[in-house]
């Protein structure tokens, strides 16, 4: 039996985020086969599928690899329907692209706790935020807290 190894970039969105949003997604574009992934979605792309190369459809959930966010943000903005969770401590151009877009933003709590692939709690040293694009998605985002639009 082959052991599956999950990367350092794998930190899973807590269930309370999805419970609060109250949305179902058509596609999780940067998912995992890991049993701790609990995104309410009908379809998902994993690292094996390379979600950047596949067509995106419907309402998207995206928690991309934080080590390489730019291409994911570019495709997410082009798709223009969904929510994404990204770090806020970056000087990358993608931050400005998000800020200058029609997407809305809600900061998540400081020192947000995620679940790592081994089941351990991962506390980010930077803030994270959920961004939404599309009217229904922005309305759902308001359930998480104060929204910049």
Quick synopsis:
The protein has helices at 15-21, 70-79, 93-100, 135-141, and strands at residues 11-12, 27-28, 60-62, 82-87, 104-107, 113-116, 121-123, 128-133.
Q: How would you sum up the global shape?
A: globular
Structural class: alpha/beta
Average of the residue pLDDT scores: 86
How much helicity do the residues have? 10-25%
Distance between the termini: 49 Å
Poorly predicted spans = 1-7
> Which sheet architecture does the biggest sheet show?
5 strands, mixed
CATH architecture: 3-Layer(aba) Sandwich
Describe this entry's structure for a reader.
The chain is an alpha/beta fold and 149 residues long. It has a single domain (11-141), classed as Rossmann fold (3-Layer(aba) Sandwich), CATH 3.40.50. The chain contains four helices and eight strands, in the order E-H-E-E-H-E-H-E-E-E-E-H. It has helices at residues 15-21, 70-79, 93-100, 135-141; strands spanning 11-12, 27-28, 60-62, 82-87, 104-107, 113-116, 121-123, 128-133. The chain has a five-stranded mixed β-sheet. Strands 1-6-7 form a three-stranded antiparallel β-sheet, with no helix packed on it. Helix 2 packs parallel to helix 3 (93-100).
Helix-strand layout with pairing:
Layout: E1 11-12, H1 15-21, E2 27-28, E3 60-62, H2 70-79, E4 82-87, H3 93-100, E5 104-107, E6 113-116, E7 121-123, E8 128-133, H4 135-141
Parallel strand pairs: 2-3, 3-4
Antiparallel strand pairs: 1-6, 4-8, 5-8, 6-7
Helix pairs in contact: 2-3
Entry keywords:
149 residues; alpha/beta; five-stranded mixed β-sheet; three-stranded antiparallel β-sheet
């Amino acid at each position: 039996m082959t052991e599956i190894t999950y990367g350092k970039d794998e930190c899973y969105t807590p269930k309370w985020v999805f419970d609060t949003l109250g949305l179902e997604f058509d596609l999780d574009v940067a998912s995992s086969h890991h049993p701790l992934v609990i995104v309410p979605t009908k379809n998902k792309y994993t690292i094996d599928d390379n979600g950047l190369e596949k067509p995106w459809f419907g309402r998207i959930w995206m928690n991309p690899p934080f080590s390489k966010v730019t291409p994911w943000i570019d495709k997410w903005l082009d798709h223009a329907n969904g929510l994404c969770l990204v770090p806020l401590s970056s000087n990358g151009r993608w931050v400005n692209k998000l800020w200058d877009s029609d997407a809305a933003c809600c900061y998540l709590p400081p020192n947000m706790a995620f679940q790592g692939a081994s089941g351990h709690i991962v506390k980010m040293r930077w803030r994270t935020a959920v961004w939404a694009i599309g009217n229904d998605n922005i309305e759902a985002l308001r359930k998480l807290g104060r929204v910049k639009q």
